[in-house]
Write a structure and sequence with these properties.
Strand content: 5-15%
CATH class of the largest domain: Alpha Beta
Largest sheet: 8 strands, mixed
Shape: globular
CATH architecture of the largest domain: 3-Layer(aba) Sandwich
CATH topology of the largest domain: Rossmann fold
Distance between the termini: 55 Å
């Protein structure tokens, strides 16, 4: 229904299957919504022109989430139509019943209803507009069932048939609705850009049409998709257009939906004041009681994000009172579960104050939700509420009750055909076994959860706003906990190897989540096959320690740990990062550098020496990505003085090929002048001259370094090196990872698209991408995820970048030495070339501080 699209943030805690259905109803199912809301959409002389009271009452019940009651009413209506020989109305009722059964997760009855609809349509003349309209609705319902049961390609084909039937019926709204359904199928298949093209085509079709509710809804659908893809500026513009149309038409439901969508967009940009303002405006409009509570839950979640405890407490009573007034329905059940989850988050923020709602009241509220789900025969909702009640028991130190309920929730999720909930409860089972000290059982459960997650990868990579939060809260922690269980002091070699593989998988999953619209494929890679003189370190910060898994050539994978609270580890890393500023005490910096060296390297020193290791490759975790590991200090030397160093987003994504000497050819571009609020970079001119001195290079400087020129030259020129000396910023959000041109910005997705186009047109592989004046976003603990994103998305085999911008002639000198080393006849590795360039600065008194040489990091292929 139209108003359902206004609550994506609330749905962040719901099952992904329900979220998928919400997207379908809010984005792609306007045609199905019309099928129910506009019953019957056929000619006035048709035998189904006057819907019965039961049909209309069933529609109202359906919109209110009272699914079992709508089934009862529509079955009675279907019997009446069948008795009267009214085959078209009977077929339409079976279509409605199929939709209701689908919402209940009852695939068998849903399919049976569709089959009965087809049987009733046998022999009907499909070219008649009224008959074609019923065919179209039946196609739509079948497509929805196919999507929900994982037959996405079949759903796409079915919705194309629905589109053709709507055209025959002369139903333009139905045509557009079925196209919106196709856009949803394309998203589920991971074809997000094709989905976007289709939605933009729909918007273009409606551009010159009168301002109608369909136009407002279509624009809102497009805006929500752009938001999901991280294109927040465009999303905001389009959502504002949707809002303007709804305001012009004085349709409060669509005004409210657009305001909430704008609030969600602002919230995902961390613009909390704007999000609060949009939510507040929406709350002042009339709404269905369920919608009102859902918005209040959005507001509660937002206040918790902002740690506004008093404001959160003030919302608790209105939400509790609103929930008490709701009739049993799936939305009301989910609202209670969501409320319980937010109360759980509020509890630690109270700091000694009395709880606003006691554990017993929360448990009773969830027990009531379970009872309602049983009354509605909604197995999926019952599973969701039961699993959350188990979490409450877990917090109350009732592990046996928690385990029993979680097992029941797991079985219900399987019955409801909900792999997303099955994953959630499988993970919870593993966590409970872990807390109970049942390690083998925990490992088995975590393995099962990962297997389910792997089957859901296509959906994970849709990564709408909700699922990004779900990744941070419900996917990443599972991987970390699994590593924690595997990496115990008595771990077997097989378990340590499994921990390494899990860390690799986590890295790929993080990048999938970063890009939102890209499936990254990886393969298991043996370090021996890449470089017999390289060691790979996998450091990960866990709740009680920093764990290191070390992979050495021709030796068993090993692990070691330093046990400290996570808060202390993260504080030390943050202080170390700050210490590289020139104003910081050298004594304190060296002490911090040595502390982290002791965590990561010292336990492995003997192994590194015995294996004749020359290169250290780090697959770093979280905030460790921001640390220049070359500047770790052993008490006498920096790490770079002993080893070449490289970073890798994941060995699974590595293309291990050595660079041919004397074969470099570059396209170099950059800015020397201040632009768009960024400082001038006067040393860039000398840096670009140094590049030209070391290899053939085409140069784009200042006014020639525009978005369009850069795009065109990247596509056309036969070079294997791209050197960009311009401001660039890394962020953990893809849309905020960009580089600066004379007339604008190029974000990581655009750069990837341009370079991908180049690879399609030019056989010369891109060996090296250099970004020499970049920096991490201030206050972003995982900003260097953006660096990993650029490294992967660019398609370059290696990326050389900086963690902070030095803005000094030292950069041009380091880059000159780096290219000089790469062009040596003996063909040293890229990592060793960078090491020699860093040592050249370190040996000079004016540049021996790590501020000048440490921020340069090589990501990807180090050979």
């Amino acid at each position: 229904m139209a108003t359902r699209s206004q609550i994506p943030r609330f749905r962040s805690q719901l099952s992904s299957s329900f979220k998928r259905l919400w997207l379908y109803m809010g984005l792609g199912c306007i045609a199905l919504w019309l099928a129910i809301a506009a019953h019957p959409a056929v000619g006035q002389d048709s035998p189904i022109a006057s819907p019965t009271d039961r049909v209309e009452e069933g529609r109202v019940r359906y919109e209110n989430g009272q699914l079992s009651e709508s089934v009862r009413l529509w079955e009675l209506a279907a019997q009446e139509y069948q008795q009267n020989g009214d085959r078209l109305n009977y077929a339409l009722m079976q279509t409605y019943l199929s939709l209701a059964y689908q919402d209940l997760g009852d695939w068998e009855n849903a399919k049976a209803a569709i089959d009965r609809s087809w049987d009733a349509l046998v022999g009907q003349i499909q070219d008649r507009p009224d008959v074609s309209g019923v065919f179209a609705r039946t196609f739509n319902a079948r497509g929805n069932l196919e999507l929900l049961t994982g037959q996405t390609e079949a759903a796409l084909a079915t919705w194309r048939e629905a589109e053709a039937a709507y055209r025959t019926a002369g139903d333009e709204a139905g045509v557009l609705g079925s196209q919106l359904n196709q856009a949803q199928a394309l998203q589920t298949l991971g074809l997000h850009r094709k989905s976007l093209e289709l939605l933009e085509s729909i918007a273009q079709t409606l551009e010159t049409a009168p301002d109608t509710l369909l136009k407002a809804q279509s624009l809102r659908s497009l805006g929500v998709l752009l938001q999901m893809l991280g294109e927040f500026d465009r999303a905001t513009d389009i959502l504002e257009r949707s809002l303007a149309i709804a305001q012009q038409l004085e349709d409060s439901a669509n005004i409210r939906a657009a305001l909430v969508a704008l609030g969600n967009t602002a919230r995902n940009q961390q613009d909390f004041p704007a999000a609060f303002d949009y939510y507040q405006q929406a709350s002042e409009l009339p709404a269905h009681p369920v919608d009102r509570v859902e918005l209040q839950l959005n507001q509660l979640s937002l206040t918790l994000d902002r740690r506004q405890v008093n404001a959160a407490i003030a919302l608790v009573s209105p939400i509790r009172d609103g929930l008490a007034q709701l009739a049993p329905s799936r939305p009301s059940i989910y609202a209670r579960v969501n409320f319980a989850e937010n109360l759980r988050k509020l509890s630690p923020l109270l700091k000694g104050r009395d709880p606003v709602l006691g554990d017993r009241e929360i448990a009773e509220m969830l027990a009531g939700a379970i009872a309602d789900a049983r009354q509605l025969t909604d197995v999926r909702a019952e599973s969701y509420a039961m699993g959350q009640l188990a979490r409450v028991y877990e917090g109350q130190q009732r592990p046996e009750d928690a385990q029993t309920l979680t097992q029941k929730a797991f079985l219900l999720a399987q019955r409801a055909n909900s792999p997303e909930l099955t994953y959630r409860w499988q993970w919870q089972i593993g966590r409970l076994w872990k807390e109970a000290g049942q390690r083998d059982r925990a490992i088995e459960a975590y393995e099962g959860a990962i297997a389910i997650l792997r089957s859901l990868k296509a959906e994970l990579n849709q990564v709408n706003n909700d699922f990004q939060l779900s990744f941070n809260n419900s996917v990443e922690p599972m991987y970390r906990q699994f590593v924690e269980v595997l990496s115990q002091a008595d771990a077997t070699p097989e378990q340590i190897q499994r921990a390494r593989e899990t860390l690799e998988t986590l890295q790929v999953a993080e990048l999938d989540n970063f890009f939102r619209d890209e499936n990254l494929t990886g393969r298991s890679t043996n370090i021996d096959a890449i470089d017999p003189h390289a060691a790979v370190f996998y450091p990960i910060v866990l709740e009680d320690r920093i764990e290191v898994v070390l992979s050495l050539p021709d030796r068993p994978t090993r692990r070691y740990a330093t046990f400290l609270p996570q808060t202390e580890i993260e504080a030390t890393l943050a202080n170390l990062y700050q210490s590289f500023h020139l104003a910081y005490s050298s004594q304190k910096r060296l002490a911090l550098s040595q502390t982290v060296y002791d965590w990561l390297i010292r336990p492995a020193e003997a192994d590194l020496a015995a294996a004749d290791i020359q290169t250290l490759v780090f697959v770093p975790d979280s905030f460790l990505r921001n640390i220049p590991l070359s500047a770790l200090y052993d008490g006498e030397q920096y790490l770079v003085q002993k080893y070449a160093i490289a970073l890798s987003p994941s060995l699974q994504l590595l293309e291990p090929r050595a660079l041919e000497p004397k074969k470099l050819r570059a396209m170099a571009g950059g800015l020397t002048e201040a632009r768009q609020g960024f400082e001038s970079l006067p040393a860039v001119a000398e840096e670009v001259r140094q590049v030209q001195a070391e290899m053939p290079a085409e140069v784009l400087l200042d006014g020639d370094f525009t978005r369009n020129t850069l795009r065109d030259r990247l596509s056309a020129a036969p070079f294997n090196t791209v050197h960009l000396a311009t401001h660039a910023r890394f962020s953990s959000i893809a849309n905020e990872t960009f580089l600066l041109t004379w007339d604008g910005r190029v974000n990581v997705k655009e750069l990837g698209e341009w370079l991908t186009r180049r690879q399609q047109q030019n056989p010369t592989p891109l060996e090296l991408l250099v970004l020499s004046a970049c920096q991490t976003a201030e206050g972003d603990r995982e900003a260097s995820l953006g660096l990993a994103g650029i490294a992967v998305r660019s398609g370059a085999r290696s990326t050389l970048a900086t963690l902070w911008s030095v803005r000094d002639l030292s950069t041009s000198e380091l880059m000159s030495e780096f290219y000089h080393q790469l062009n040596r006849d003996d063909g040293i590795s890229r990592a060793e070339a960078l090491r020699q360039a860093q040592l050249a600065l370190l040996d000079r008194t004016e540049y021996d501080h790590p501020f000048f040489w440490a921020p340069f990091v090589l990501v990807g292929n180090w050979l």
